[in-house]
């Protein structure tokens, strides 16, 4: 028997980080598919704009703003309860909220790591635990987590960001054993470079840069037909995975050349260049 895969008629789709970037686009695309989408982020005004954009696009479904801070575990649990009380059962949960702050060796900051892990990793855990409990009780559900190709290996300035994405991939792989038995499909989405507010900070050419509309379409298609891991664009993710099999000396030489890190001057405390993939 195949694992459960959500459909609009089954219940509600819940998306965190829905106010910008990939999350915003996926929320609109799912509304077009007919879902009632509970869109979560901290900014009420931006969520209202997303809801209006979906309506203007003639979506069969609708977007309902649900302002919430993923860092607040109690608030996340309350949000899950509110969604299910007001809108219906959550059959599809997409944990997409994320943050990025460059991490450079010349100026390591404890708060950089704490802040990134609090949002990117524990922000997922804070929502996953209460929603998985309800899916388990119902006997079905689908959970998607947004990772990154930075999970595959270390990239310059991404020590904190990449570590959280690697942790999410490992966590999801471990949970899959038990979730499969509970008819809860869990998936990891590892996008490459997508044209979003985060990647606009980058100061180097980004290979295979995708439009957010194309990334959203690939994400939704992955929800409907993809397996455990969905990575895109494949021409980038497959190459990056292959990098992991290279000898360390060659790997570091190639990465420094591709990112321009071989020409980078030693930074002062105020010089923070960005290398991100969302």
Structural notes for this entry:
The protein has 278 residues and is an alpha/beta fold. The protein has one domain: NAD(P)-binding Rossmann-like Domain (Rossmann fold). It is built from 9 helices and 7 strands. α7 links the parallel β6 and β7. The longest helix is centred in the middle third of the chain and has 23 residues. The chain is globular, with a radius of gyration of 19 Å. The C terminus is likely disordered.
Short overview:
The protein is of the alpha/beta class. The protein is built from 9 helices and 7 strands. The protein has a single domain, classed as NAD(P)-binding Rossmann-like Domain (Rossmann fold, 3-Layer(aba) Sandwich).
Number of helices: 9
CATH topology: Rossmann fold
Radius of gyration: 19 Å
CATH architecture: 3-Layer(aba) Sandwich
Percent of residues in helices comes to: 40-55%
Describe the biggest sheet? 7 strands, parallel
> Which structural class best describes the helix and strand composition?
alpha/beta
What does the oligomeric state look like here? Answer: single chain
Overall CATH class: Alpha Beta
